[in-house]
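Hey, I'm writing a tutorial for new members on how sequence and structure tokens pair up, and I'd like a real worked example in the thread rather than a made-up one. If someone can provide the structure for the chain below, I'll link this post from the tutorial.
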Amino acid sequence: MDNFVDERDYKILEADKYTFFVLTRIMAQNCELLLSDHKRLIICYSQSPFPVWIWTADDATSEEMENAYKLSDEHGFLDGKHGINMKYELAEFFIKKTAEKSSASPHLPKLSIKKNMFAYDNPKPLQPASATSIDGHLHQCREEDLDELFEMTCDFHKETNVPMSDKDSAKKQGAPDRQKTSRGALYLFYLQ
């Protein structure tokens, strides 16, 4: 394993560009740890309090998962204090492996999935067959749109059955929407 990344790593991440897009940006910064074989495994840790990122190929073998586990353990990432972003199959492997080890050593922390990451793309949106044009206008969001954005987020969580914290604490955590709004990065399309 090398302790640097290069164009090979960025190339392999193109296939996971939505879920692992953030990783490409983190790798470009100074990191406490970068490990890569430039083909099937990348481990990246920027610094506390941020999570460790572990990328594996979609068809990772049990040996490759074992290697990712071993390296994570050697670097202290399985202490229960580090968050780790990884693919679901690897997370299941880590949870099972840690459970097996903790049966012999009860002091070891239990690993679990805290959040599922989802990324969506629609590279070729289709216009509905019943409409030749849609009347409306694009609106760049401002501070006064935050309540409407929050309500849309609540509706999304309700429709997808994804749990959401209570409204008051969620509004307090709304800083990212506030930051995106102040940068002009959020838009609404109003139908007429």
